[in-house]
């Protein structure tokens, strides 16, 4: 997420933040390899999402719980999050619950993997090599996102390649244009909705 407050983070902080995105791939991978159905996946994800929301509220309200977690989380929190927004972790966990509940399993897997795998290289390449900028994003970062999203589409199980490629493009465009809304939420939801609608229209 090449978002507001990007320059606030050191390169080390940016890398640590993006490691959380890569770790989040355990969500679609677990959903697939553990052969979970929607209900089983939601039974796992909803408590985790609620736990992260509580941590974010503790941070925003300066509850005692936050003082125990400050040393771990403070270095990877962006400026807009410090000013009152939830962290990207809360957004991606909440969005994962909605995506799993709303979409078929192949679509959910791909739409979540697009942002989780695509955002880290987009942010790092955009920060290091981004020359053609639009607001707080860069063309170079978006191209990096697209390359990874296409790779996800090629590897996505049980998803027609055409749908996966359309979803990859949709996720890239949505991530690039999500200036004032967290792209951890918008990219999976928009790309997932497009793929789901096309699945119904073309394959039902």
Polypeptide structure, described:
This protein has 204 residues and is mainly α. It has one domain (6-203). Helices cover 76% and strands 2% of the residues. The chain has helices spanning 11-24, 26-33, 38-61, 64-73, 79-82, 88-102, 105-129, 139-155, 161-177, 183-203; strands at 133-134, 137-138. Strands 1-2 form a two-stranded antiparallel sheet. The longest helix is centred in the middle third of the chain and has 25 residues, at 105-129.
Topology:
Layout: H1 11-24, H2 26-33, H3 38-61, H4 64-73, H5 79-82, H6 88-102, H7 105-129, E1 133-134, E2 137-138, H8 139-155, H9 161-177, H10 183-203
Antiparallel strand pairs: 1-2
Helix pairs in contact: 1-7, 2-7, 3-4, 3-6, 6-7, 6-10, 7-8, 7-9, 7-10, 8-9, 9-10
Output the keywords:
single chain; 204 residues; mainly alpha; disordered N terminus
Query: How many structural units, i.e. domains?
Result: 1
Q: What number is the mean pLDDT?
A: 86
C-alpha termini separation = 34 Å
Shape: globular
Rg, rounded, reads 17 Å
How many helices? 10
- DSSP strand tally: 2
The largest pleated sheet is described as: 2 strands, antiparallel
Which spans of ≥5 residues are poorly predicted at pLDDT below 50? 1-7
Question: What spatial order of strands do you see in the largest sheet?
Answer: 1-2
- Helix and strand run: HHHHHHHEEHHH
Q: Report helical residue fraction.
A: over 70%
Structural class: mainly alpha
The amount of beta strand, in percent, is: under 5%
